[in-house]
């Protein structure tokens, strides 16, 4: 059967499902705690994961541009499977660290490459204007997968908290054949000779020469860091409200269903509010989600979490689209990796500190502090975007 660029879209869906059907997410913090890790240990571990991603984020994005997005996705998928195999046989911080490093390297080869593959596949078909809609669908499918996994993971945890990790290895394997069957839209294009100097030139262009690209990347990075940060607070937050593991799994599922449904409407919201209006809504919505959930440390706070995830469903595809609109194809994966690089750097700096703050003070005060930080950083980014747009 002849492969087409249109055929890349369902394969990218499969890769997203394999990556986001996370049986482990509803119980991962509880699993860490069962194995003797404190909240500071948990966020330190995730901070180290972020550093691993950071080290390879931009070079892997660059390799995807010059070596091929397909090859990058294949390697990332293999490492993603291997990481969960290591997790399945680990019982302490050191073993978890090894698994996180493998997963971090694998994630760095997928992040940026998948979105670049989607955009350039649409570009080949002269359907690039559909990117926001397609990216929203990919995100929606991923969140639906994570929502279903929330129920399954919570149920499997009744057997043991380790069971979801074992089965996650098989789920992650699905991405490997899907990546192998992709058709690279840039396979016949002339490849730029790989080199560290060229990587630096793209980074310089993204973060210095192009003011428009710089501030769009900064806003997307701040919001990306915020959504990543809150994800690691939800389980201890709900546990602090004396909720059972099964209840936490259900809430996790509903939160991800919220993102999935809202993502399908993201292009309509952006079309109605416009770029600046949407950006302001995202910054205020995300930061207030932190502050209000910390302020209302009760079932009202749980309601605030749903509002946060509503805004998240709009933010992720829309802010990626803003970057893709102003980025050339031959550097697209690298530029998207610059965005992911900044997200991970921010989280590596903020995450462990907020974990320490939670252990020494309270989760409520840590959430309000985080919301204030993201409000300031996001607000500054929107101000400069408005300036360069004029």
Automatic annotation (TrEMBL):
* Cellular location(s): Membrane
Give the main localization category: membrane
InterPro entries listed in its UniProt record? MFS, MFS_DHA3_Transporter, MFS_dom, MFS_trans_sf, Sugar_transporter_CS
Q: How does it sit in the membrane?
A: Multi-pass membrane protein
Every copy of the Major facilitator superfamily (MFS) profile domain together lies at: 1-389
One matching Pfam family is: MFS_1
Chain ranges passing through the membrane:
12-32, 47-66, 73-90, 96-119, 140-159, 165-183, 213-234, 246-265, 272-292, 298-319, 340-357, 363-385
Alphabetic keyword roster: Membrane, Transmembrane, Transmembrane helix
Task: Return the protein name.
Answer: MFS transporter
């Amino acid at each position: 059967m002849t492969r087409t660029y249109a055929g890349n879209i369902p394969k990218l869906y499969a890769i997203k499902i394999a990556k986001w059907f996370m049986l482990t997410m509803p119980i991962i913090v509880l699993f860490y705690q069962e194995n003797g890790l404190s909240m500071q240990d948990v966020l330190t571990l995730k901070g180290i994961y972020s550093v691993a991603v950071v080290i390879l984020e931009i070079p892997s994005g660059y390799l995807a541009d010059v070596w091929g997005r397909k090859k990058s996705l294949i390697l990332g998928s293999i490492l993603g499977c291997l990481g969960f195999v290591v997790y399945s046989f680990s019982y302490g911080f050191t073993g978890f660290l090894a698994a996180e490093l493998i997963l971090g390297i694998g994630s760095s080869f997928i992040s940026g490459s998948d979105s670049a593959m989607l955009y350039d596949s649409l570009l080949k078909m002269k359907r690039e204007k559909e990117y926001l809609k397609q990216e929203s669908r990919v995100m929606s499918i991923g969140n639906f997968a994570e929502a279903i996994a929330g129920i399954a993971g919570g149920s499997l945890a009744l057997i043991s908290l380790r069971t979801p990790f074992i089965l996650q290895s098989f789920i992650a394997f699905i991405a490997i054949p899907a990546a192998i069957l992709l058709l690279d839209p840039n396979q016949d294009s002339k490849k730029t000779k790989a080199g560290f100097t060229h990587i630096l030139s793209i980074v310089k262009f993204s973060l210095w020469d192009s003011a428009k690209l710089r501030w769009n990347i900064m806003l997307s990075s701040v919001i990306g860091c915020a959504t990543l940060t809150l994800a690691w607070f939800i389980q201890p937050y709900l546990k602090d409200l004396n909720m059972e593991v099964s209840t936490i799994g259900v809430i996790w599922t509903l939160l991800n269903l919220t993102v999935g449904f809202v993502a399908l409407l993201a292009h309509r919201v952006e079309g109605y509010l416009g770029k600046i209006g949407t950006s302001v809504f995202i910054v205020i919505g995300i930061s207030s989600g932190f502050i209000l959930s910390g302020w209302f440390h009760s079932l009202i706070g749980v309601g605030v979490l749903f509002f946060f995830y509503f805004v998240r469903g709009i933010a992720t595809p829309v802010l990626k689209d803003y970057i893709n609109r102003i980025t050339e194809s031959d550097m697209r994966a690298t530029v998207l990796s610059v965005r992911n690089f900044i997200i991970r750097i921010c989280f590596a700096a903020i995450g462990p500190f907020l974990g320490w703050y939670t252990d020494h003070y309270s989760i409520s005060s840590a959430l309000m502090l985080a919301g204030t930080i993201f409000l300031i950083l996001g607000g500054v980014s929107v101000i400069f975007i408005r300036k360069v747009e004029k």
